[in-house]
Design a protein that fits this description.
The protein contains six helices and twelve strands. It has 201 residues and is α/β, with parallel strands linked by helices. The chain has two domains: 2-114, Response regulator (Rossmann fold, 3-Layer(aba) Sandwich), CATH 3.40.50; 127-196, OB fold (Dihydrolipoamide Acetyltransferase, E2P). A five-stranded parallel beta sheet has the order 2-1-3-4-5, covered by helices on one side. It has a five-stranded antiparallel beta sheet with strand order 10-9-8-12-11, covered by helices on one side. The longest helix is centred in the middle third of the chain and has 13 residues, at 102-114. It is elongated and about 60 Å long.
Length: 201
Amino acid sequence: MNCALVLADQTLSQLLKRYFSQLRGAAVVFEACSCEKIFDDSVLGAADLLFLDDLCLQESLVGFLNEMENAPLLVGVNISPMRQAELGNLSVFSYLQLPASLEKLIGLFDLAARMGKKEVGFSRQSFFFVKSDYKIVKINFSDILYCEGMKDYTQIFLEHADNPVISLQNLKSVCEKLPASQFLRVHRSFCVAIDKIDIVT
């Protein structure tokens, strides 16, 4: 996923680049601290996602992007809720508050890929950790059959395990840690591993 960063606050820019360095296939193809340089198709043509802060997120820029063929998706970085309401009629793909978890950024990339911007080639962690019975337990995504929400905790059923791992997190919190491309929330109480589904009746 190619990213363009146009952020007046270079601290945010450095933070995003640190996140991207943990994702194979994520690259910064353009970086600037003001929006003057981006009114050029050749600059943005290679980008899939364009990260802008409040100073650069302007109607004129969004209008320019709307007229571009194959324009990057627009991500507003650290935009206040009040400002988001003001920008409600603009074509902003998503808003990102930093610092954010790596999982949040991966979810953003997954969603952009599903919207047809690009097949994402980055690899993510193949596991996550949950708190269970006063221990921290490592769970590989590939071992999960399904998760069942039980009010304020979640049972995680694993291949080759007699008993589920019981996490002291609700199903929503657990699902946010799972890759959206591999798991599907099929009911308010169940999330299943797509590759473990044989038959749907």
